[in-house]
What we know:
Chain A is mostly beta strands.
Amino acid sequence: MKKAKSYLKAIALLLLCLMVSTQAFSQVVRVKGTVKSNKGEPLVGVNVVVKGTTNGAISGIDGSYTLENVNPQATLVFSFIGFASQEVVVNNRPAVDVVLSENVTGLEEVIVIGYGTQKKETLTGSVTQIKTSEILTTKSTSLVSDLQGKLAGVQVRQQTAEPGTFNSLVSIRGFGAPLVVIDGVARDGMSDFERLNSDDVESISILKDASAAIYGMNADNGVIIVTTKKGTKGKTKFSYSSFFGTKQPTTTTLQKSVDAYTYRVMKNEMDRNIGNAPTYSDAVLAQWKLGTDPGFQDYNWINNTLKPSATQQQHNLSMNGGNDNITFYSSLGYMEDNGLLRSNIQQYKKYNFRTNVTAKLAKGLTAKISVAGKFDQNKSPQGSYFWLFKPIIVSDRGVAPFTVNYPTTHLSIVPSANQNAYAMASEDISGYDKWSNIQYQSTVELTYEVPRVKGLTLGLLGAFDGNINDASNLKKAYYTYDYYTDAPSAAMLPIYKDGITNFYRKDFQAQISYKNTFAEDHNISATLVYEMKSSDSKYLFAQREYDDVYTHDIIDQGSLNNSTNGGNLTQQAFMSYLGRFNYDFKNKYLLEFTFREDGSYRYAPSSRWAFFPAVSGGWRISEESFIKNNTPFISNLKIRGSYGLMGADAGDPFQYIGGYSFAGIDGGYVFNSGTLTNGMVPVGVVNNNLTWIKTKTADIGMDLELWKGKFGFTMDLFQKNRDGLLGTRIQSVPNTFGASFPQENINSDMVKGFEVVVSHKNKIGDFNYGISANMTLARKYLIHTERAAYSSSMQEWLDPWGNNRILGREWGYESSGQYTNLTQYETAPLCGGTNGNSKMLPGSTRITDVNGDGVINSNDMLPIFWAGQYQGYATDPPLQYGLTMNSSWKGFDFNILFQGSAMFSIFHKVDDIWGYGRNPTLWSKYLDRWHTEDPTANPHDPATIWIPGKYEALKTNQTGTTDNLITNEWRYDATYLRIKSVEIGYTLPVSVTRKIKIDNIRVYVNIFNLYTFCGKDVKGLDPEREEGSYVADLTYPLLRSFNFGFSINF
Amino acid sequence: MRRKILYIYIAAASLFLPACKKFLDIQPLNKVSATTLLSDISGVKVLMATLYNKMPIEDFSYNPGKMFNYHKDAGSTGFVDLGWSISFYTDESLVTAGSGVGPVNDGYWGYDAVSQVNQLINALPTVTMDKSQRDRLLSEAHFIRAYIYFGLAKRYGGVPLIDTVLTYVAGSDNANLYIPRNTEKETWNFILNECDLAVQNLPATVSAVDGTYRATKWAAYALKSRAALFAASVAKYWNNAPLSGVAVDQNLVGGMTVSDANNYYLQCINASKQIIDNSGKQLYKPSPANKAEAAKNYQDIFQNPANADVEVIFKKGYIDGSVTRLQGHCTDVYFNPAQTNLGYIAYGRFSPALDLVDLYEDYTDDGTGKSATLVTRTDGVENDYVTSATVMNVTKPYKSYANLSDIFANKDARMSGAIITPGSTWKGVTIIIQGGLIKKDGSTLIFTDGSETGLDGKTYYSFGASSTTGYSGFRGMGVFDNANYSCTGFSVKKFLQESKTVTGVQFSSTTDYIDFRLAEIYLNYAEATVESGQGDAALAATYLNALRKRAAHTDNIPGTLSNILKERRIELAFEGQRYWDLVRRREFHTLFNGTKRKSLVPVLDCRQPTPNYIFVRSYNYYDQNAGGVTFNPQWYYRAIPGVATNNLIQNPQY
């Protein structure tokens, strides 16, 4: 870190030196004045700049400012966030007082849309935009987390907080992963988006409906457009922000399992409950209880392997300034995220930079040059966290990491995973898994306002991006020994592997825009773009093992035996023509038409091109005189609608090309003695028909603003139909055809839903506040899925993937309470199949015999649960909501964000590590179980007295019982509302900061994932995180972080 | 300036715009076009490699109960399946753990290969290359297609004859893909016609540049000879095992007449004659000086087929699979007798039946060519079989031999070239195969580990040696995975390497498999001639006796059908012919009708001052336990796979 800091400083100095400042006027004066709002309050922090120079000042606490060396005929520019900018000519005055009017409605706000910008008031599409200030109210290591809950229609689910994993599920209206456009070019997708430096972001626009159609292919899930910060002219300003944080798992129950002695007592109980003899004798138990003899001591694997908290920090330095001809924004950032493992092997580090320069090259000709880069690297345990976490959880607390006889040298074999989590977490012992990524993105954009033709602009854009990813894995070999006898296990050979992906992308765009107003009321604009894009990705992989001795993690130092390598190259090319035409009459009746003609390398020339038109329109009712005159409190009322066709570029490429591919050794033949000729096989059916997935999107929306933005309401109804989803025809292939059928565009589905945003802003004295709530419900239907015919209507009913039904229901058993004594089983339905109820004990869930046949079996299942990740078709909860509140009073500001989702469930697999019986550990929560008062009593004797508990009588296996069936004991409603973030900041008074020549200092503390309101059972699991592979819930926990940060502008 | 700017814009834009057409035409990097492959001699080989690989050659890697190319996936459980022979389903031999008879269940349905050959035939005219090269490749494709359809026809009878590239039309009902079965006769005619097309432009010899294991004109004739004989036999003998059902009504199986049979026999005769007269092929070392030399010569053909190229018409090669992923075969590992096992857990798996051993002639050479049944008794009764040697009657007049090998002394050279008999020398080791002993008191110790002190005071062991490494027979019968000791009294020699070192791991054998050799063509000619009365009967007899002469026989025997068929069993023993001979001649169901294959159990008689050997004729342990084995007539045709979806008419009684 120290290194990084000094590095930052050096660069900052260098850039400073390079800055050109021109301040030479012959006749100059001093200008003073105050800036006030239209409500008469002095405005603090207003930027005052002499137009065309870098000479500027910031208004102070009383709204006053002073400018030296001002040409008496100069123009002053006053700008302040949330207020309309103003230009005032000094005109020889010594004092210039200004009143800025508030931009309360935000209607003047310019919204970034595809290939251009538009005023919010004339928008006809469903577009949401968020500005930098709103993004930065939540500070975390992921940009996606910073957005979560703030944007209507943007559904986010964080899957893990593991450092270096950027796999949050982001979905616009439940459609799936959106297209990400950064500074005009579709770049690297969600993972890249998540790693963007949030300080560099000027705004993010979300195109949710047919307005995305201008992006044609792959826009059918919606588009996220990121615009990065540009420089503003004026004196060079520096901004340094930083935060430090500590984070801990959101789930407190994670840390609790019973100790080695208690587990053994419980094991005996579980044995007895299934009629087995107890495993441990009283004498042995006594030794465990004593816990002092070697080999009989408790070792808390969880606490000894995981820390209660981890740290993170982030630093960002930016510079911004310029003159009339050149402005620039430049930033450097560093971020560090550490993991919970005590071995400190988990580390994510990111360095990023960005420089955006805007230069006026000639009259009307502007160049925007943007260069950005990122270097990030991650280190984690060899093998995934998942496979390390499992032994941490399931390891017997009666077995320590080193053997009884060699407590510092011999690593022990720990049941039940028979691994050693201590060794697995240690880089020195077991190796590592690392990746590093070098990314650069560059864009050069020229715009030329053609003289003499008002409103005509020509544009050229070229982008070149590259990415080098290096993933290496070192698996070191180590011996493990039996805990008691020290019998060694066989060690494998050390293996080192390294794979490098070299990627680059070229994008070229040529653009013509025209914008004009005719006869005062007819506003016309048009944009035509031609775009071509290509990318190459080359992969090279090598692996060697160390037969003799491990030396270094360098390929050359491994042995040649069993060395392997691999590599491939993929290329892509796309081409598009697109256009947009807008017409509005008096800003009242709005009409927009867009089209895009897209070509993809993927398909046959005949099915390569697709045309994606979209149309949208709006009516600003509030502009009509009957509203304007009668209900002036309605500042904006607009209804709008859009309909468009979009596409998704999918399917295996080049299916239209026949030819041969390698069959490998297995398809080879010996044509000459001792030589094998590898074979090549024809590729199967040549498929000329494969083409785009076609998506029709419709949206009807309404925007309402009352009392100049005091109250806002937006609502959208949407529907998206996808046709031509890939499938393979079920029509049986006659086995004389000799090949299988190819992918075709035959399936279809639909997503329907609505979203609502309600907001309120107000100001009471010095107290400003705003509340905004949003909610999105999006549900998916399968319209047609190619499938074999159902054998019965029952089978069809049981299929959760059935056609024409809402996805997202899960089958389970209905239940009501628990059986409380053995005699109840005499009349209860049969639960244990051939075992009858002979294995059932008190405390088991009373499952409803739905079909009344006296037997509990799969015929009694009902679609009673919301689905979860487990079923795979509902990874995003269909209903998501968020609420943000921000307020400020004098120097204080306060933000709070609530976020949550519903109509989802989480499954807690009973026979896996979260359950009991299978592994030599037990969660302490299971102590709250039905058990016999006398631990040695026969549990199957009706006379035995039981003590009730939340869980049934525990058993080492559930055969012959209903205890492992899916009931609400194991599948929980995951509805939650979470205080996602809370931030309190304080900006030091200007009177103080000015003394140290600093414009602004703000300090803040924030808490991320503060508290979650949800069902009791899901609390221990975190309802947001998904269960992960094998539904085992072994993914890295989500974290609650406490951060302290500050920002200085000077 | 303005103008300049505009020019820059126009130039930049126009630079990219016209480039468009080609911009999206990037080529896939994981595929190679047929043109690229076919225009390069190595490319042709690569393309052909897959097609040859897919030919249903019943080689060492063929497991008739599993699949072709069974070397691909060893698996941990089915290891013994790797050493398997179609011979185990006949009266030639058994797998040492016992095997029944019945249809081959290899699941062969080579339409993926058919489709690939059709694509090649389709593509060839579109590729620029020498006409001679194209014609040759076309003929080669026809050879492969003939081979594939022969593999289908002999299993299923009439099959859908698809000789064009079928086009899948998305969204249509694809009725064009549902090709019905052709009649059996049409199928045979198609195969023979394909052979004719193959013969046209295949070269007479292949060079190392092309690959010496590629098909020649003579391979195509040989295929035709074999296929035509098959077709003719089915046509002639169909009525020995008539079937009924829709498939029969529509002539999808059977439905051929005597004149069809004669036509096919004639085609066999002509094709065979082409090879005999024009190929330059000759029998390998046709005139040995003595019996020992003949045996050596015969053994050498199969140990090193490359040296016998004068006789071999088409063979398949291997490379050491223990080095290059599973591309060898397991013959040596699985089939060496226990005493010379290579160290793998399974060995000694090939147990030739006494039925075959009895068939070989001796060298009395009196012009009759009769089989020399082993002499086990002094009373001349050689048809007395015990259900198991354990229940032998020690009082029967067994003939006593001083040495284990004496009983085989005068047998045909080809027996010792193909079979390891008890007491013979193999790899410098005397192979001991002994089932037990008769104790001094007359009680027996059979198939059980034990010993007896003889009257000479020496210790004798029931299996012939004190340790399991000292003998090769009869241990662990009934214990499948341990059945590494001959269950018949014999072990196989044909195909095994005697001098060349082979490592004791799976897939380490690289001995070539001989698919066609001149001896079969001689016998095809002889059989077709005698069966049909066409061709030259004298020549048929000449060919028959040429084979015998090569085995050091000195007399000439008449070219009768039975002599020819017996010669075929002897000359081509274990070469995969017997199974299909029984099928095509419809002899399977009469031969195997509750039938038990026989074993010869050598027993040491310790009642004599110096223990001597007697030989007990016994039913094979496994066949006896199974109550005999039976071949059901419907098995002459396999069940057509996938009739539920391909709409084909199923074969009778499936």
